[in-house]
Amino acid sequence: CVTQAAAAVGWPLLNPHDYHGQRKIPPGLWPTRLQQHDELDGSGLPWASAESETATRKMFDDLFPTDPDWEGVIFLDEVTQSSTAWQKIVGSLLDRAGVAGSNIPPKARFVLAGNEVTNRAGASRLLSHVQERVATFLLLFSMSDWQEQAAKDDVHQIVRSFGDFKGASFTSFDTAIDINPVPRKLYGVSDKLKMLGDKLGDDTLKLVVGGLVGMGMANEVMAFRAHYNMLHGVVDQVLSAPGSCSVPTEPSVVHALVGAVSERVRSMNGDLKKSHLKNIVTFGNRLPDAFSGLLVRNVLCSNVVAEQIVEIPDGIAWITKHKEPLLAARARR
């Protein structure tokens, strides 16, 4: 979210440690995770002056920008999980009153983030003098955002395709349940499939997955995985004779097939021939529009494939056919 926010406003995401000593700092988004700092980092370390025989407070130079000419957004993460003392410091920052004798740049803006009180993340309500100075928004899970980031992070294709199949119910959080299938846990499922998928039996692997996302979703993941693995022979047919292979009608099987084709494209990458891409386009056009659009999105995750597929006339037409949902997903980001 922080990276996307920086990109949305056209500013780079800065690393505060790169500007220790407050050298000239470029405009950007300045992230600070309050949980990683002691309150003294924000309020300042008591500093005795031998010359004047007075005590002041000295703030660590790289915690907040103090250059009066600096413009940008100071992003304070985990505010609701921070201590009362930290929230008092945040209130002072929002008032531009400064901390430890150092003033915040007048053109700086603030974005605060934190978990809801109800989701058992150790969060507490904002102090009233902080709450009264901010506008509050609830960020909801976005499948398109998650899929884009998951592709960049090389999340296992089974998990990504399962996400497409489940849609809005892919992640959920119930305060009455100890184990919930939240996005962070689903990354863990990807790791376990990569590390243990070929080493453990299905029953044991299901227990491992269940320890991450609960046995209910583990049963669904393993059933989806079985579909996915059975379809590798069909993928060979898609790449060689796409007109002769049958298109399944069961949604979970189609999702698994789209995922299996996408994974094969990713694994072949530079070894893909134009004939393979042409056959993928042919097969994609035989799929229902919704699934054809998913295959377009997955294929375009590879820059190498994207550069090759636009050289195929049918490929350009295929992408153009699905440009509206692709553009809509990008616009939401």
| Poorly predicted ranges | 329-333
Terminal Cα span: 9 Å
Structural class: mainly alpha
Number of strands: 5
Order of helices and strands: HEHEEEHEHHHHHHHHHHHHH
Number of helices: 16
- Characterize the main sheet: 3 strands, parallel
| Beta-strand residue percentage | 5-15%
How does the overall form come out from the CA principal axes? elongated
Helix coverage percent? 40-55%
Chain-wise SSE layout:
Layout: H1 2-8, E1 28-33, H2 39-43, E2 45-49, E3 54-58, E4 72-77, H3 84-94, E5 108-112, H4 128-131, H5 143-152, H6 157-166, H7 183-196, H8 202-213, H9 215-230, H10 232-240, H11 251-268, H12 274-286, H13 289-299, H14 303-309, H15 313-321, H16 323-332
Parallel strand pairs: 1-4, 4-5
Antiparallel strand pairs: 2-3
Helix pairs in contact: 5-6, 6-11, 7-8, 8-9, 9-11, 10-11, 11-13
Question: Can you walk through the features of this model?
Answer:
Helices cover 50% and strands 8% of the residues. It has 333 residues and is mainly alpha-helical. The strands form two sheets. A three-stranded parallel β-sheet has the order 1-4-5, with helices on one face. It has a two-stranded antiparallel sheet with strand order 2-3. Helix 8 packs across helix 9 (215-230). The termini are close together. Mean pLDDT is 78; it is low at 329-333.
